[in-house]
């Protein structure tokens, strides 16, 4: 993610989380096989090879992206390739601010993008918007079989039987480490603390860890390590004040002492990128950037806590189909959906993104490929330990209170039990 997307991650209050899921909740289709209620396809059998071609008149579509520098450069190259093959034109643009806020303004004004890229957690939130609608059901427009993707990925793109996007990667946070500072990656929290103690010297600008510790998405794994859920989507209950979450919060507090005093995303990631910390907890979107900064970069799963794997939030990245397509020319619809089809089903694109960007594949033919790098495999293992970001619209009310609770604890203004109790109370009042 680039600076804008990082800002979104650290500012989930008032918006929703980034990113992402690999065990996405079954919210779409008939609830059984993740299909759209027909044969598992989004409108055809995909027999056309899904090369992104409209087969007729060419069109133009707007795509909003908020990516890291490495991701953005790669996306530009892929768009050039798609345009060359299809004859279509994609106007790739930055949103000019926090993506969801820009969409909230642009779509009602009729000036929104035809498609945008973000994690699946906005599907439920935007799917229930009716005045005006924010998403476009492309079930009758796409020409690829949804069976091309993993079950969780195709479910992530659907809501109440409608197809609102196409998936291309899963993601979660894992543990980066500098192999020049760490002999063996830690498997337990105790091992990690021991290594951090060796390096942590804040008076001389050295730290044990780079970690945005007041961001609920990033810290979800530790809070939920003992089996608690920040939000129980199945029962639609706020459970961040459960005993299990409070135990997880105690474990998270262990890490507070080892990070730079500014918990913001930029301050944290810079410390690791500059070689001033042996560890960083971050997502695969940083892999390309950090490989350019750290000569010997390693990635592993989050350390266990009392034998428990941290249950980090995970998500599916989608090409969303915007409500702007409802009134667009068919050539625009074909162009926007064509790019998504081409990008998400190209084994070369998916494999290259896995190698260069750390994207965890959701294209069925690539998942489990022995050629995937150790870094991608580490993220994939952490996805297996994780839980999906809830897609229910009530989740919108969770981020801000939890963020503010983390800030109070981090700043020493409130103990963690009281902070989580207050957050839970505030969330319940908002629902």
UniProtKB/TrEMBL annotation:
It comes from the Archaea. GO terms for biological process: maltodextrin transmembrane transport; maltose transport. One of its GO terms (molecular function) is maltose binding. Keywords: Signal, Sugar transport, Transport. The keyword Transport applies. Residues 29-46 have a biased composition (Gly residues). InterPro entries: Maltose/Cyclodextrin-bd, SBP, SBP_1_CS. Gene3D superfamilies: Periplasmic binding protein-like II (3.40.190.10). SUPFAM superfamilies: Periplasmic binding protein-like II. GO terms for cellular component: ATP-binding cassette (ABC) transporter complex, substrate-binding subunit-containing. Residues 29-59 are annotated as: Disordered. Belongs to the bacterial solute-binding protein 1 family. This is Maltodextrin-binding protein. It comes from Halorubrum saccharovorum DSM 1137. The lineage of its organism: Archaea, Methanobacteriati, Methanobacteriota, Stenosarchaea group, Halobacteria.
């Amino acid at each position: 993610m680039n600076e804008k997307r990082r800002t979104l991650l650290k500012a989930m209050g008032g918006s929703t989380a980034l990113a992402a899921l690999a065990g996405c909740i079954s919210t779409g289709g008939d609830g059984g096989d993740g299909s759209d209620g027909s044969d598992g396809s989004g409108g055809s059998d995909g027999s056309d090879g899904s090369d992104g071609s409209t087969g007729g008149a060419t069109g133009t579509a707007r795509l909003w992206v908020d990516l890291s520098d490495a991701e953005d450069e790669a996306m530009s190259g892929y768009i050039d390739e798609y345009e060359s093959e299809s004859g279509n034109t994609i106007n790739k643009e930055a949103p000019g601010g926090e993506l969801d806020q820009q969409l909230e303004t642009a779509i009602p004004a009729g000036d929104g993008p035809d498609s945008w890229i973000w994690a699946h957690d906005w599907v439920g939130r935007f799917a229930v918007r009716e005045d005006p609608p924010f998403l476009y059901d492309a079930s009758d427009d796409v020409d690829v079989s949804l069976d091309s993707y993993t079950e969780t990925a195709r479910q992530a793109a659907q809501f109440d039987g409608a197809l609102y996007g196409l998936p291309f990667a899963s993601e979660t946070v894992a543990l980066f480490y500098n192999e020049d500072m760490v002999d063996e990656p830690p498997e337990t929290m105790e091992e990690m603390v021991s290594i951090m103690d060796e390096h942590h010297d804040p008076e001389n600008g050295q730290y044990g860890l780079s970690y945005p510790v007041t961001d609920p998405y990033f810290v979800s794994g530790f809070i939920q390590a003992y089996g608690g859920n920040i939000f129980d989507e199945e029962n639609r209950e706020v459970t961040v004040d459960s005993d299990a979450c409070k135990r997880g919060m105690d474990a998270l507090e262990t890490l507070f002492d080892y990070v730079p005093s500014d918990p913001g995303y930029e301050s944290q990631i810079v410390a690791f990128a500059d070689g001033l910390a042996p560890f960083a907890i971050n997502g695969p979107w940083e892999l390309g950037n950090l490989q350019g900064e750290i000569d010997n970069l390693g990635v592993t799963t989050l350390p266990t806590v009392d034998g428990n794997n941290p249950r980090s939030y995970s998500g599916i990245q989608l090409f969303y189909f915007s409500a702007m397509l409802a009134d667009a020319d068919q050539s625009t619809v074909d162009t926007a959906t064509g790019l998504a089809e081409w990008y998400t089903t190209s084994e070369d694109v998916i494999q290259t993104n896995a190698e260069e960007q750390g994207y965890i594949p959701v294209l069925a033919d690539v998942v489990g490929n022995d050629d995937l790098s150790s870094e991608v495999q580490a993220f994939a293992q952490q996805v297996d330990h994780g839980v999906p970001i809830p897609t229910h619209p009530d989740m919108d009310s969770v981020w801000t209170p939890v963020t503010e609770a983390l800030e109070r604890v981090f700043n020493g203004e409130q103990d963690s039990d009281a902070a989580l109790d207050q957050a839970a109370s505030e969330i319940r009042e908002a629902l």
